[in-house]
Amino acid sequence: MIGTIIAALVAGLIVGPLARLILPGRQNLSIPMTVLLGAVGALLGVFLGRLFLDYDGGPLNFWGIILGVVGAIIVVLAYGAITGNKGTDRRVTR
After folding, report:
1. Structure confidence at residue 37 (pLDDT)
2. Residue 67, exposed/middle/buried by CB under 10 A (0-12, 13-18, 19+)?
């Protein structure tokens, strides 16, 4: 259990910023919040992979990172919807 949480936090360092790079616009998230949402996304991605894709690995391998990024995108979008931050600042600044 503790090993899974530590692995999710380490994966959160990778998948949180990747998810923010993939999402369009600008998300107003701090670095700790990005890591936390990435860790939750990594756990969600592995859970969904085990539920739907018969995935039996952890969050720290190739498919775990891919599933974690998908999970982190879902979590970042949900966080934006809950907090009222749409996550897309499309204003052009010059």
Report:
1. 84
2. buried
